[in-house]
UniProtKB/TrEMBL annotation:
<dbReference type="Pfam" id="PF03171">
    <property type="entry name" value="2OG-FeII_Oxy"/>
</dbReference>
<dbReference type="GO" id="GO:0051213">
    <property type="term" value="F:dioxygenase activity"/>
</dbReference>
<comment type="similarity">
    <text>Belongs to the iron/ascorbate-dependent oxidoreductase family.</text>
</comment>
<keyword id="KW-0479">Metal-binding</keyword>
<dbReference type="GO" id="GO:0046872">
    <property type="term" value="F:metal ion binding"/>
</dbReference>
<dbReference type="InterPro" id="IPR044861">
    <property type="entry name" value="IPNS-like_FE2OG_OXY"/>
</dbReference>
<feature type="domain" description="Fe2OG dioxygenase">
    <location>
        <begin position="221"/>
        <end position="323"/>
    </location>
</feature>
<dbReference type="InterPro" id="IPR026992">
    <property type="entry name" value="DIOX_N"/>
</dbReference>
<keyword id="KW-0408">Iron</keyword>
<protein>
    <recommendedName>
        <fullName>Fe2OG dioxygenase domain-containing protein</fullName>
    </recommendedName>
</protein>
<keyword id="KW-0560">Oxidoreductase</keyword>
<dbReference type="InterPro" id="IPR027443">
    <property type="entry name" value="IPNS-like_sf"/>
</dbReference>
<dbReference type="Pfam" id="PF14226">
    <property type="entry name" value="DIOX_N"/>
</dbReference>
<dbReference type="InterPro" id="IPR005123">
    <property type="entry name" value="Oxoglu/Fe-dep_dioxygenase_dom"/>
</dbReference>
């Protein structure tokens, strides 16, 4: 179905709600293979009903909140050569992981030129001619490179104003020719750099748990890497929808690169707080699997992205988790005790992800069914 026919369905639905057929609208949108970017390119002034959220009451920005709490910014400069500084950084990371599940890191060793080029590469892909990018459109999770809009589009109550490319870069990366030429070189280079950074962060997290520096790496937490490049087009009615609705991340860890547009928010003590872009910084957040194996010592917390008149917004998520890993994971025995008994059962990543994909972005913790 072409974009013109898709728009005809959208117009009909918005003009007469009594005839609205959500399944038809979602199907037409997906079959257009044009994504949200395609809607913007077609000139829509009203967003389709499939994107309307029924729960935007708490999405009103409250700037006063940002004076009460901010995500910690942790400086990694010279920690390898300064034991005192190293100990201080480990303590800061422990505090952030236990209290809010988010922190930003600066002086991490990845040049800003590589970070900038990665953002530009993701933007270049999504802003290609529609006939070029739609060749990559798929919902086949077995593909080595995916372009799609909304992972659980057909299950979620409403769609997010966002398009995505995704690619598993470890442990079994795609052949270079599988990646789109427009972002191929930078994706390969960036994935190598972000893996190295991931190893360093997992070492610090291991120490923050009171474990040997290599513990989480040997456990397998860092062996898988899945990179997603998100593109949030400018939205004509941002008050009606979300860029990304409230959720937690499933992986052990996410290292996020965001541009300077803003819009990321984290839920802390039942209030939403902005995570303002810091040029040259990465946002690091704990995922569900790391919360599980740390027995709730580290927190995987809700976050979201607001849609905006401004845009496009570009971000890059680097999820550390091997979805093909056959191992069974449960709370780390070395941190358990009579005072800290296990609160989760042992699970496989396959079973955990099956539950995640089945539930979609429903605003509920993916960990709930796995509690003892």
């Amino acid at each position: 179905m072409d974009l013109k026919n898709t728009n005809q369905i959208i117009v009909a639905a918005t003009e007469n709600d009594s005839t609205y057929d959500r399944k038809a609208e979602v199907k037409a949108f997906d079959e257009s293979k044009a994504g949200v970017r395609g809607l913007v390119e077609s000139g829509v002034k009203k967003i389709p009903l499939m994107f309307h959220s029924n729960n935007l009451v708490d999405a009103i920005e409250n700037s006063e909140n940002d004076f009460k709490f901010s995500v910690p910014i942790i400086d990694l400069k010279d920690i390898q050569n300064n034991p005192k500084l190293h100990t201080q950084v480990v303590a800061e990371i422990r505090s952030a992981c236990c209290e809010c599940g988010f922190f930003q890191i600066i002086n991490h060793g990845i040049p800003s030129s590589i970070m900038d080029e990665m953002v530009d590469g993701i933007r270049r892909f999504h802003e290609q001619d529609i006939d070029v990018r739609k060749q990559f459109y798929t919902r086949d999770l077995g593909k080595k490179f995916m372009y799609y809009s909304n992972t659980s589009l057909f299950r979620d109550k409403f769609a997010n104003w966002r398009d995505t490319i995704g690619c598993p870069m470890a442990p079994d990366p795609p052949k270079p020719e599988v990646l789109p030429e427009v972002c191929r070189d930078i994706m390969i280079e960036y994935s190598k750099k972000i893996r190295e950074l991931g190893f360093r962060v997992f070492e610090l997290l291991s120490e923050a748990l009171g474990l040997n520096r290599s513990y989480l790496e040997k456990l397998g937490c860092s062996e898988g890497l899945f990179i997603q490049g998100h593109y949030y087009p400018e939205c004509p009615e941002p008050e009606l929808t979300m860029g990304t609705s409230k959720h937690t991340d499933t992986a052990f860890l996410n290292i996020l690169l965001q541009d300077q547009i803003g819009g990321l928010q984290v839920l802390h003590e039942n209030q939403w707080f902005h995570v303002p872009p810091v040029y040259g910084a990465f946002v690091v957040n704990i995922g569900d699997l790391l919360q599980l194996i740390t027995n709730d010592s580290f927190k995987s917390v809700y976050h979201r992205v607001l849609s905006s008149y401004k845009g496009p917004r570009v971000s890059v998520s680097s999820f550390f988790m091997n979805m093909q890993d056959p191992k069974i994971y449960g709370p780390i025995k070395e941190i358990l005790s009579e005072e800290n008994p296990p609160i989760y059962r042992d699970i496989s990543i396959k079973d955990f992800m099956a539950h995640h994909f089945a539930k979609g972005l429903d605003g509920n913790y993916a960990l709930h069914p796995f509690r003892l």
